[in-house]
């Protein structure tokens, strides 16, 4: 271990990103993965998955009292989703920026929602909102052996 690598390891975050059923149905999986991949984050988990009601409810438990909660649960369980874990320094906030505002009509052009969606209830992608939730959601959607620890060949060309 080189000292500068040890220091940066502490700053490495995990975020849980999910292409929602509308993104899968609309054929946007490759596009969405590509945007995160090109940015330079590291993919450590990836699967196509049919989410069941209990998992959707646990994932969105903070929104339980909201009026849109039942339709949100129906939406997330309405077809397969693509579950991902991405790692990197600052990945949580950066992925949220790449995703854009919750309401796609307010999301900036250049963001995933700004470019690819029109309605809050069909906003194609989820991203964790804090490093703590990144860890919580990763543990919720992935089992231990499903994540890969690896060093991308491009690592020295992304981080000095
Ligand atoms: N949502 C909705 N109506 C609303 C607010 C949110 O249908 O008025 C849905 C939408 O799919 C959103 C998800 O609930 O992505 C979670 O809401 P949150 O506020 O956490 O937005 P996000 O973190 O996804 O931007
Ligand atoms: Mg959220």
Automatic annotation (TrEMBL):
Chain residues that bind ATP: 20, 68, 96, 102, 113, 123
EC number: 2.7.4.6
Catalysed reactions, as listed in the record: a 2'-deoxyribonucleoside 5'-diphosphate + ATP = a 2'-deoxyribonucleoside 5'-triphosphate + ADP; a ribonucleoside 5'-diphosphate + ATP = a ribonucleoside 5'-triphosphate + ADP
Domain of life: Eukaryota
Keyword annotations of the record: ATP-binding, Kinase, Nucleotide-binding, Transferase
Any Gene Ontology biological process: response to hydrogen peroxide
Catalytic residues as annotated in Swiss-Prot or TrEMBL: 126 (pros-phosphohistidine intermediate)
Leading EC class: transferase
Gene Ontology MF annotations: ATP binding; nucleoside diphosphate kinase activity
Occurrences of domain Nucleoside diphosphate kinase-like (ranges): 12-149
Family: Belongs to the NDK family.
Protein name: Nucleoside diphosphate kinase
Organism for this UniProt entry: Gossypium tomentosum
